[in-house]
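Batch queue: ligand-bound targets. Current item pairs a single chain with LMY7XDAE. No template structures supplied; prediction is de novo from sequence plus SMILES. Inputs echoed for audit trail.
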Amino acid sequence: MTHVIDGNAVADRIRDDVQNCVTALEDEGVTPGLATVLMSDDPASETYVSMKQRACDELGIEGIHRKLEPEASADDLLETVIELDGDPTVHGILLQMPVPDHVDGTNALRHVDPLKDVDGFHPENVGRLVAGDPRYKPCTPHGIQKLLEAADVDTDGSDVVIVGRSEIVGKPIANLLIQKAPGGNATVTVCHSRTNALAEKTRQADIVVAAAGVPELVDGSMIGAGAVVIDVGVNRIDAETEKGYELVGDVEFDSAREKASVITPVPGGVGPMTIAMLLYNTVAAASIQTGVPVDLP
Ligand SMILES: Nc1nc2c(c(=O)[nH]1)N[C@@H](CN(C=O)c1ccc(C(=O)N[C@@H](CCC(=O)O)C(=O)O)cc1)CN2
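Prediction returned. Tokens below.
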């Protein structure tokens, strides 16, 4: 029987842990604060940011939101980031990705105070992750580690194939999985759209992480018997539903499920973990900046 991981249930447990940390901080007079910055009219990005703000409300984290028009200048964005850097009630700053093409997102991220960089995208935090001493683990990769742990998947000595080399998922999950640490010690191959014989590579893997942003790129014929399949894709496909679309992963679920021992669904798999781990990083950031200890597993 294939185990379909319930990402919402795992995320709820993380949120309970975060809630306890919020209470511990409040007891010492600290209200954790998270600022989201959105410079886009993309409906999916708007949805993610409002989900993040709602999650803050639910847990007693102070949510601050800054919306910039997509036509705003790179300087407007930098001004917003610098203002939030200087606000002591803001412990975490998140710049929703992607930003418009005329803005250098990498440069904007360099202006986020590394202690407030709860996405873990600032070069200092990326460097720490690569060096094996992460401050804030990027949310989606950290969420994947937590899902594997919850499903009792041992990464030690396993062969992992990651499909996708993004800064947000592909590169950081590769770095986490090769670390000498629980949830690491794997042998990792990072593939992408130009990889030769992709299916041959994925078929050899004990764990396949699909994070290419291509709907149903990975099907059952590309999965070895008994492999673990982690689907990071959340693609909106036009459909005659109430919302006008349906969500489809990077994995063709039905055929992959027939081969896999463990698989994540879309929706309800990795997505909810991204938000749970953002809340986790926010209380960690509030703790680091105020010196009030919190107990995060
Ligand atoms: N600054 C960042 N930008 C982006 C990140 C990120 O981690 N930091 N990740 C992605 C999108 N993302 C968060 O921003 C995200 C994606 C999906 C979900 C989620 O909960 N998905 C649900 C379905 C939600 C829906 O109805 O659309 C699910 O999979 O069950 C949360 C966050 C890109 N940008």
